[in-house]
Design brief:
heterotrimer, A alpha/beta (247), B mainly alpha (225), C mainly alpha (225), A: 247 residues, alpha/beta, Rossmann fold, six-stranded mixed beta sheet, four-stranded antiparallel beta sheet, 10 strands, B: 225 residues, mainly alpha, MetI-like fold, 10 helices, nucleotide-binding (chain A), ATP-binding (chain A), P-loop_NTPase (chain A)
């Protein structure tokens, strides 16, 4: 199996009512690959990555994760999702729990680890994202950058085989963006399979293997990062890039 | 089930029920007006910059609402019996003192929810302090608390039923009287329950459909969130 | 309190009837405890039903809540003491009927608090939970419910305080709780000022105490966002 791609989307279509959100999206992500998805807002990029762990149902086409059809009736979604880490734009830390308990929760209840084991793993991951001293802090007492790093630790705690990032730095103040990108870069260097929706083109240039450009629910370009940044093939991608970089 | 329904007895006493309903409405209105006035005054005091004013308002609110309404009524009707106040007036006084504490707390919260910049901007434009309150602060504060005020009004209508214990011949009192004569327990109490529900629904219907009241609801929802 | 101080503060009529009044006070606390515990359980269940949007059950829960919230407590107690036993053909006592009435009554109000608490938890948190492999039920139990319950501590405690005050209404159907005992003592001694004032102060102290507990609990458990 290790030769075949980990994530395969094949002609995925989705609409809200009559409004199409995803049109015939096909994409393959190999193990260890870093794919950055970009495009104007409303282009469907967030929806696209949420089909991978079944948070967004789709109407036609197929999404496979490690050979398993995500949208199939018999799929054990909780078990599948525990193998895919996800990081959200607005962190979504549980406000009634400390950072440590946020990282422990799914280990205990989704994976069935003992509390002691979950705690040890959580502390190790909080150390890895540089937040050892903030383990007992509540989300409200953490900065945005710290919250997002806890959220990354929470996702990593399940020992996922792939990570999905949905605009992880969009809700952050500029001075905090780098602390989160640094953690993500380190993760990429360790060989994690990652699909990242982001506008951080510096990160994409440095880390991504491939860049996927979306517009109006379609995947318009899907090319090696170096090629994409050297010369985008489409006019739309060119306009998008010039806007992003100008600002 | 062995119970035999007989609604005819209730129908025979419809004039008593109607009398009771009218007294309930009269009592509710008679209590609601002073309740709103006292509540507005105490609430404004509670939101004022004067520390003494806030403490006094807080004491009023805590004292009045932590004593049961029934005791409020007995205070005027029994403890202060030497004043020889009519029972209806005792009920109005009891309801007013009790309910105004809730209104005051709402008004205070409503005023606190109006951004301070609003009052500053109004003062900066040359309005006098009372004008700032009446023209700028109150309208916004009342919009914020309008739905809660409406539910307090329904509460007051239901609470007025306790006036029956001091012999005010309102709806619950008449129900007891009819029940005593006819022993049609179930029919009588279901009938008056339905009448109270109808009154409460009427109030929420009015809030939803009277123009000017309705527009206030979305604003309140934003404030809740 | 030393004897002389007690004598100076507590009127003679109260000291003379202290055991009787104390028993009444104990009954007040008992009724409130039954209402709080039973009402919270039923209210939680109704609130969950309303939230879950199960086809028929949720509608029935909504109907129940609307009906009870539209009916005065006095009428609810009458229905529980007279109407339901007459209809269903069983005998009841005033204490049992009052306990049932308080549970049924306050549950309808608590259910709405539970529902609004559940609705106030952002759906993004549930998605985050699901994304980590929790099942829907786990996400509800571990993420939604604990937050909802902590958020509704203030309104829930104000319902508890309201119930504590409302136990006085049980005196109307003949329960000898604090108000009922006070009225009986007054009928014998006829010293309404001292007796009503003592009852009022007792309620004031207990209700203030209960709302203080609510505030302390909220300060400890409330979720900062």
């Amino acid at each position: 199996m290790s030769g075949s791609p980990l994530i395969v989307l094949d002609r995925v279509c989705k609409q809200y009512g009559t409004t199409p959100v995803l049109r015939d999206c096909s994409l393959a992500v190999a193990r260890g690959e870093i794919v950055v998805v970009c495009g104007p807002s409303g282009s469907g990029k967030s929806t696209l990555i949420k089909t991978v762990n079944g948070l967004e149902p789709y109407q036609s086409g197929s999404v496979r994760f490690d050979g398993e059809e995500v949208g199939a009736r018999g799929t054990d979604l909780p078990r599948l999702r525990a193998r895919i880490g996800m990081v959200f734009q607005s962190f979504e830390l549980y406000p009634h729990m400390t950072a440590l308990r946020n990282v422990m929760l799914a280990q205990v209840h989704a994976l069935g680890r003992s509390r002691a084991e979950a705690r040890e793993r959580a502390l190790a991951l909080l150390a890895r994202v540089g937040l050892t001293e903030r383990a007992e802090a509540y989300p409200a007492d953490l900065s945005g950058g710290q919250q997002q790093r806890v959220a990354i630790a929470r996702a990593l705690a399940l020992d996922p085989v792939a990570m999905l990032f949905d605009e992880p730095t969009s809700a952050l103040d500029p001075e905090m963006i780098n602390e989160v990108l640094d953690v993500m870069t380190a993760l990429a260097r360790d060989g994690m399979t990652m699909v990242v929706v982001t506008h951080e083109m510096g990160f994409a240039r440095k880390v991504a293997d491939r860049v996927v450009f979306m517009d109006e629910g379609r995947i318009v370009e899907d090319r090696p990062a170096a090629e994409f940044f050297a010369a985008p093939a489409t006019e739309r991608a060119k306009t998008f890039l010039s806007k992003i970089i100008a600002h | 089930m062995s119970y035999q329904f007989d609604w005819s007895q209730v129908w025979q006493h419809r004039d008593l029920i109607l009398d009771g309903l009218l007294v309930t409405i009269a009592l509710s209105v008679a209590a609601l007006v002073p309740t709103l006035i006292v509540g507005m005054l105490i609430g404004t005091l509670g939101a004022s910059t004067s520390r003494a004013g806030r403490v006094a308002a807080g004491l009023y609110v805590e004292t009045m609402r932590n004593v049961p309404l029934l005791i409020h009524m007995y205070v005027w009707y029994m403890a202060l019996a030497f004043l020889r106040l009519p029972a209806f007036l005792c009920a109005v006084l009891g309801l007013t003192l009790y309910s105004s504490a809730y209104v005051a707390e709402l008004v205070r919260a409503g005023i606190a929810a109006v951004p301070r910049g609003q009052a500053r901007a109004a003062a900066a434009s040359g309005l006098r302090p009372w004008q700032v309150q009446v023209l700028v602060v109150y309208p916004q504060a009342l919009r914020i608390v309008a739905p809660s005020l409406a539910s307090l009004a329904s509460q007051l209508v239901k609470d007025s039923s306790l006036a029956s214990v001091i012999a005010v011949a309102e709806l619950s009192y008449q129900a007891g009287a009819i029940e005593g004569q006819t022993f049609r327990t179930f029919e009588v109490y279901i009938t008056i329950a339905v009448l109270y529900i109808a009154l409460v629904l009427l109030i929420s219907f009015a809030i939803d459909h009277v123009p000017g009241l309705r527009a206030r609801r979305p604003i309140a929802r934003i404030a809740d969130a | 309190m030393p004897e002389p101080v007690l004598a100076a503060v507590v009127p003679e009529v109260i000291r003379d009837n202290l055991p009787f009044l104390a028993a009444g006070f104990a009954m007040t606390l008992r009724l409130a405890a039954v209402g709080i515990v039973g009402g919270s359980l039923v209210g939680l269940l109704l609130g969950l039903l309303r939230h879950a949007e199960i086809p028929v059950l949720s509608r029935l829960a909504a109907l129940y809540i609307e009906i009870v919230r539209g009916t005065p407590l006095l009428v609810v107690l009458f229905v529980c003491y007279f109407a339901i036993p007459a209809l269903a053909g069983y005998r009841t006592t005033a204490v049992a009927a009052a306990s049932l009435g308080f549970v049924l009554f306050i549950a309808a109000y608590l259910a709405e608090d539970v529902r609004s608490g559940l609705r106030s938890v952002p759906s993004g948190l549930v998605r985050a939970g699901l994304a980590t492999g929790l099942t829907r039920w786990q996400a509800f139990r571990l993420i939604v419910l604990p937050q909802a319950l902590r958020r509704i501590i203030p309104p829930v405690f104000s319902q508890y305080v309201r119930l504590l005050k409302f136990t006085s209404v049980a005196s109307v159907i003949g329960v000898r709780e604090l108000t009922g005992s006070a009225l009986l003592v007054n009928a014998r001694e006829f010293q309404p000022v001292a007796i009503i004032a003592t009852a009022a102060v007792t309620y004031l102290v207990v209700c203030s105490g209960l709302s203080l507990v609510g505030r302390l609990l909220d300060a400890r458990l409330s979720i900062r966002t």
